[in-house]
Amino acid sequence: MSAMTTATVSLRDLRMVYGTGERRVLALAGVTVDFPPATFTAIMGPSGSGKSTLLHCAAGLDRPTGGRVAIAGKDLGSLDETGLTRLRRDRVGFVFQEFNLVSSLTAGQNVALPARLAGRRTSAGEIAAALAEVGLADRAGHRPSELSGGQQQRVAIARALFNRPAVLFADEPTGALDSQSSRQVLDLLRTLVDEHRQTVVMVTHDPLAAAVANEILVLADGRLVDRLTGVSAESIVARLAALEPTC
Ligand SMILES: Nc1ncnc2c1ncn2[C@@H]1O[C@H](COP(=O)(O)OP(=O)(O)OP(=O)(O)O)[C@@H](O)[C@H]1O
Ligand SMILES: [Mg+2]
Predict the structure, then answer these.
(1) Phi, psi angle pair for 60, to nearest 5°
(2) By Cβ atoms counted within 10 A, which residue in 35, 38, 78, 120 is the most buried?
(3) pTM of the complete model beyond 0.85
(4) What is the mean pLDDT of each run of 10 residues along the chain (247 residues)?
């Protein structure tokens, strides 16, 4: 029971079934894992292995079919929709592959948007500080189209961190970026863990990205099949190659 309270995020026998009858898909087949405070975890595995489903359930974006999710000791299953929305808003940051910034708003306005939608007043000073933290102090007035992909993703990270969430989830955050921009985003995530004790959980297909994490969880067919620590990008490639279906 103590594990449910000390980990930032706890998953217990997490199961997710989509559809029924012939269309039934078992996306998660009972995953149990803890994400401790101030750790960087990468989730890897073949396409369709359940990585995004796991992230969405762990973040309270989807409700699992079975099992339990706790964030900062709070059991998500005990919350109604209002409570779940509030917990997501206050405790969870989420970053997507496609950045999902609002194109008509400036970087600063994008960062402040979720807080403003939640009815919170925001100051120019705290928005500037949030952008400075991701290395974009001089870009507050720029719109997404005036920023590089890597800069847009860093704005998305600043937005996700604005409410000081307990955990930052990222689903292939470098998937749309070139190698140099990827490096900047990964260095930023690593710094958040090392210097700000942020808990980060990142899905990635990129072994170089995964090598930045403290631990790599490998999913296959909705199951946790491996946990790797202190491994090189090369050995990650070899481990994943064994799981990929040969076409
Ligand atoms: N909304 C949905 N309705 C029905 N099936 C779904 C839905 N979302 C995902 N699935 C199925 O669940 C399984 C796991 O999907 P998921 O998106 O979690 O995989 P993934 O590991 O993130 O894959 P990828 O690397 O391609 O992003 C897949 O078989 C997928 O087709
Ligand atoms: Mg996915």
Answers:
(1) 75, 15
(2) 35
(3) yes
(4) 71 97 96 97 97 98 98 96 94 96 98 93 96 96 97 97 96 96 96 96 95 96 94 85 72
